[in-house]
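Holo prediction. Input below; ligand is calcium ion.
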Amino acid sequence: MNKASAMYKKFFLILFFAISVGLQVTAQQPNIVMIVSDDHAYQAISAYGSTMMQTPNIDRLAKEGALFNKAYVTNSICGPARATILTGKYSHLNGFRDNENSNFDFNQDLFVKDLQKSGYQTAWIGKMHLGNNTPQGFDYYDILPGQGQYYNPDFIETGNIRKHYTGYVSDVITNISEQWLNKRDRSKPFCLVIGHKATHRTWMPDLQDLDRFENKTFPLPKDFFDNYATRPAAKVQDMTIAKTMIMGYDLKMFDSEAQAEKESTIARMTPEQRKIFLAHYNKIYADLKAKHLTGNALTEWKYQRYMRDYLATAASLDRNIGKVLDYLDKNDLSKNTIVIYLSDQGFYMGEHGWFDKRWMYEESFRTPMLMRYPGVIKPGTKINDFIMNLDLAPTLLDAGKAAIPASMQGQSFLPLLKHQHYSPREAMYYHYYENGEHSVSPHFGIKTTRYKLIRFYKRVEGWELFDLEKDPHELKNIYNTPRGQQLSKTLKKQLDGLIEKYQDKDARSILDTEIK
Ligand code: CA
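Structure of the complex:
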């Protein structure tokens, strides 16, 4: 063998070694893209059977991966939901119970910190909404301050650098995400969290989507004119489309440009954006005034406006999810990247006459969740086990071959996806704390496959029990019936067990005084 061929041989050996090591590492540690939207209802996603609109890009995840039919949250509100995703812990242990006066404590176990230790580079881009403390666990962040803005948003980048972008927020978030992926360290697996502002109130669509649903009329949910009989907490809430939804702030019906500047964020728009935006809504407002609607007719009109703005905002969200999937395809990343899409919680699309979230009732407790994991999840999979946002942290650590801290309360569902031994949950525990905006009473409870038992406290005191098989829309509280009393005995024991398991002292003290 001459010197040159020996060199070539050595070169090819090294190359072969490098490729096989590279393949081994990537096969063991998949990249992770987790897309978390805000207030996006499963009722508005076609993969979940919605006829309100088509969401082809979210549907693509269902076709190529798994759709979770029974994904739920521990506490149905923005910041606390994200805190649970990061920590794998309930609000009472991660400390972020509500959106009021809360700054998330980043000095605790977060799944991203453990992924970093396991060799991952991590980033959060877009909406985080966890207060004012400096994020930890991320090699890079570029996040919206607080709720952020739909048009020409400001961002805070790693090192607390304030930046301003021109454009529509969902597009801006995708662009920053792609830029980070372009400049990432390609020798490491990555975990990128993309946090969307859409579809949060006040549902300001991208200009190109303003007309998208204007010719569509949406059927009212059957329980739209709910009278809240048998449910005292539902009676005192403040989240109806009829009374709470504001004509200006929410529905963009402004009597003057001065009012529009005061109640909306049009001041952030360029003159061109503002002109198109106001012309669109001013025409609708003129039509409304000519109709002189009152009472239920006006409420139904508000519902149609809400639906049109909300779904138009969701259209951009879905388009931007598509852009990320296309980017992964173009950059040969799809095969070795887990993609998860979920909302921070569910949302009301007029059910019970409501918008917003918070309740342990189904539409807000349940959240859309889809996951693509090539080679592990068979395309078109439907998961019908109870999965909680609590489980994401341990699942992603499991997938990333990282250690799962003992403090995490969730359960990895990776074995379920791999058809390995997995013990499904028999019941789920929920606890909502905030007692301010929208006047929803704090409550905790248990959901089994058939029943839901809820204990309200502070604002309203009392129990509610629903037979979900007979009453899927949760309109008839049967707690005070003889059958309800009988059923509650068993359910309270189960609830007691979950409170013990998750170490919820506040719920414990309420339950103890109740039972003893
Ligand atoms: Ca939210």
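The domain at 437-515 is CATH 3.30.1120.10 (Arylsulfatase, C-terminal domain). That is the main takeaway for now.
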